[in-house]
């Protein structure tokens, strides 16, 4: 199984938007509803990128990041998003060590342009295309 991303989220409709965007760049993102399930999947299929909904029920972000560091051979890029009115939650995610932290609206705005980077995909250049 080729898995570039894991997403901690319990909103199937929002996840389907992310998964659809991933398919357009030939990437695979899997949704997990709990931190425990995310860690189990990360052990079996280490991802290159992780997307976290900071409003996920029961999320202990510092512990999750520590567990991911111990679980994955290489620490994946961690992108976290949350409510723009919860500035303290966003600040805490930055402090905890997430690579990218943003309000949900900014995450949606950047999804198409940045998902490949967040998942650690090598971007195809025009030179790569010409060599095929």
Task: Describe the secondary structure blueprint for this structure.
Layout: E1 5-8, H1 12-24, E2 29-32, H2 35-44, E3 49-53, H3 61-71, E4 77-82, H4 87-96, E5 100-103, H5 104-118, H6 126-130
Parallel strand pairs: 1-2, 1-3, 3-4, 4-5
Q: What features would you describe in this structure?
A:
This protein is of the alpha/beta class. The chain has one domain: 3-Layer(aba) Sandwich (Rossmann fold). Helix content is 48%, strand content 17%. The chain is built from 6 helices and 5 strands; from the N terminus they run E-H-E-H-E-H-E-H-E-H-H. It has a 5-stranded parallel beta sheet with strand order 2-1-3-4-5, with helices on both faces. Helix 1 links the parallel strand 1 and strand 2. Helix 2 packs parallel to helix 3. The C terminus is likely disordered.
């Amino acid at each position: 199984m080729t898995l570039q991303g894991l997403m901690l989220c319990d909103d199937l409709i929002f996840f389907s938007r992310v998964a659809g965007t991933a398919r357009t760049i030939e990437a695979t993102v899997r949704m997990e509803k709990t931190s425990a399930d995310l860690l189990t999947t990360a052990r079996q299929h280490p991802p290159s990128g992780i997307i976290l909904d900071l409003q996920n029920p029961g999320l202990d972000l510092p512990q999750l990041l520590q567990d991911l560091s111990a679980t994955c051979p290489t620490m994946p890029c961690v992108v976290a998003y949350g409510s723009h009115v919860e500035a303290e939650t966003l600040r805490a995610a930055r402090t905890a060590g997430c690579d990218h932290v943003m309000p949900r609206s900014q995450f949606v705005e950047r999804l198409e342009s940045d998902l490949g980077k967040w998942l650690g995909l090598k971007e195809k250049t025009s030179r790569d295309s010409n060599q095929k």
